[in-house]
Design a protein that fits this description.
230 residues; 9 helices; alpha/beta; 45% helix
Length: 230
């Protein structure tokens, strides 16, 4: 392997794993007809509150496990949608442990691995959640490390989270291609010193923050070519 990039480090939720899949699958199941039209808004609210709670807890120095944050975000979203069925809540939470990977992810990772690229995940997710997501998506053995904020007790975008990459993998920031679908995360990673790649699936405008990722993709399909060019 040649080039300056020694490790590709991926955000997990929304980047490798489709966070909308839990609500989408639940809405397709028998008995969901009464609420199924609400699933896109439910999924969007769930994700938005999940992220907002991580940011607020990081600022307040009130860290808790990401699984609790995920449950809190869902509870807000369910109440906002007027949905009170405990069985639906349990089903959605169970499905969150079985999120689909985006369709291009397996081949993309396989191509990078075949080229000898070191691969890792850096996520707000707890170790158990990351293990479950990787396993359910059939990606076991693809990653050298599953790095969780649990080891530093604060959520992204705190610098201590990004420190985990160098500490665990022995690489300098400029040797890391940091890949995230979250614009704020890609910006923070770039400000930290990583080579940033923002996976902008929705064609959103860039965030106005303290860093700017060097690269923008519409999916992960083109990532092997990008790595090869660096």
């Amino acid at each position: 392997m040649t080039g300056t990039i020694k490790a590709c480090v991926f955000d997990a939720y929304g980047t490798l794993f489709d966070v909308g899949a839990a609500a989408r699958v639940a809405a397709s199941e028998k008995g969901a007809e009464s609420w199924a039209p609400k699933w896109p808004q439910l999924a969007a609210d769930w994700r938005r509150k999940q992220l907002e709670y991580t940011w607020l807890r990081a600022v307040a120095e009130a860290h808790i496990d990401f699984w609790q944050v995920t449950q809190d975000g869902l509870d807000w979203a369910l109440e906002a949608a007027g949905l009170t069925d405990p069985a639906l809540r349990e089903r959605l939470l169970a499905l969150y442990w079985e999120l689909d990977a985006y369709p291009e992810v397996p081949q993309m990772l396989a191509t990078l691995a075949q080229r000898g690229q070191r691969l890792a995940i850096l996520s707000n997710g707890s170790p158990g959640m990351l293990d479950g997501a990787v396993s359910s998506a059939g990606l076991d053995g693809q990653f050298e490390a599953l790095l969780s904020v649990q080891d530093v007790g604060v959520f992204k975008p705190h610098r201590r989270v990004y420190d985990l990459v160098g500490r665990q993998m022995g690489v300098a920031p400029h040797e890391v291609l940091f890949v995230s679908s979250n614009g704020w995360d890609a910006c923070a990673g770039a400000a930290y010193g990583f080579v940033g790649a923002w996976v902008n699936r929705d064609g959103a405008p860039p965030d106005r923050l303290h860093g700017k990722p060097a690269h923008e993709l519409r999916s992960l399909q083109g990532l092997p070519d990008l790595v090869k060019s660096l």
